[in-house]
Amino acid sequence: MRLNELKTFGEVLADDLRDPEFRAEWERTALARAVANQVIAYRAAQDLTQTQFGELVGMTQPAVTRLEAARHNPNIETLVKLAPALNIELNINIHPRKTSSKLTTKRARTTDAVSSVAFDDAEVLIAATAT
C-alpha cells in the first residue's frame, strides 16, 4: 500500500465515530483531550519531563501521565492548577442543544484548541488558548 492510499486521521476518526460506543467515549473525553493537548504542547515547548512539569504545577508524575493519557476528564481543582501554570485560558461552556451559546466569546469559538461535543440535550464547547 502506498502512502497516498492511507486514510487520514480525519477519515479514520469519521469511520470510528459511526460506532456508538466509540462516539460516546470520544464525547465523554473531549475536555480531557483538549487539556492533554495543552499540557503536552507546553511540556514540549519548555522541554520539561513529566516530573518537572508535575513539580511546576503541584502534581505527581503519575498524575501528569494520567492527565496526558486523556482517559478521564480533569476535575476543577486540576484545571485551576493548570491554567496559571500553563498561562492558558480555559473556557468550558455547556448549554441546551436547541439554543446557541450566549456566553461563549468569538475568540473562544475560533481558537485552535476547540472541541465541540453535542449530546442529546446539551452541547459542550471547550476552548483552551494561551493568554
What does this entry look like structurally?
There is one protein chain. The protein has 131 residues and is α+β, with helices and mostly antiparallel strands. The protein has a single domain (3-130), classed as lambda repressor-like DNA-binding domains (434 Repressor (Amino-terminal Domain), Orthogonal Bundle). The chain is 51% helix and 18% strand. A three-stranded antiparallel beta sheet has the order 1-3-2. Helix 4 crosses helix 5. The longest helix is centred in the N-terminal third of the chain and has 17 residues, at 30-46. The mean pLDDT is 83.
CATH fold category name: 434 Repressor (Amino-terminal Domain)
What series of H and E elements makes up the topology? HHHHHHEHEE
* CATH architecture term: Orthogonal Bundle
Q: Roughly what is the average pLDDT, rounded to an integer? A: 83
What's the number of helices? 7
Uncertain parts: none
How many structural domains?
1
* Share in helix: 40-55%
Largest sheet: 3 strands, antiparallel
The gyration radius over C-alpha positions equals: 16 Å
**Major beta sheet, strand line-up:** 1-3-2
